Amino acid sequence: MPLAERERIGLDLGRLARLWRARLDERLAPLGLTQAKWVILLHLDRCGGTLPQRELVIRVGVEGPTLVRVLDGLERRGLIERRDCPSDRRSKIVTLTPAAAPLIARIAAIAGTLREEALAGLDDEALAACHAALRRMTLNLESGPLEPGGPS
């Protein structure tokens, strides 16, 4: 791959991620879901429906007070419950309610349709190679020191 293309990979990945999220946001807006809300619901669903609030902060990548405001809205809609952690009363456990299941199923269906649109024209071999490359880049960055101001 020519150097110019290697230098663009970070920009292209960032653009793809922003575009994918923006398209999903557009499609989920009629369900009354902002990105902050659907991301939390999906993280909870993928983790068996229950996570400590501190873990949710890390997984979602937002500040604690921001997460609390979004959780307040989800709780008002009856989609989650927060309870005191039995081993640490200062901590909260966030749990999906049964009312969240149909909404999460709709999110998954809408996200699945978007995923198929995004992956159109890519065969299994191309997707496997892409996935392997993305995993390798992720491992490379997770294992190395973070240096501010470096190239993308």
Automatic annotation (TrEMBL):
Keywords: DNA-binding, Transcription, Transcription regulation. The keyword Transcription applies. SMART domains: HTH_MARR (SM00347). The keyword Manganese does not apply. Residues 6-139 form the HTH marR-type domain. It comes from the Bacteria. Gene3D superfamilies: Winged helix-like DNA-binding domain superfamily/Winged helix DNA-binding domain (1.10.10.10). PANTHER family: TRANSCRIPTIONAL REGULATOR SLYA, TRANSCRIPTIONAL REGULATOR, MARR FAMILY. This is Transcriptional regulator SlyA. The gene is slyA.
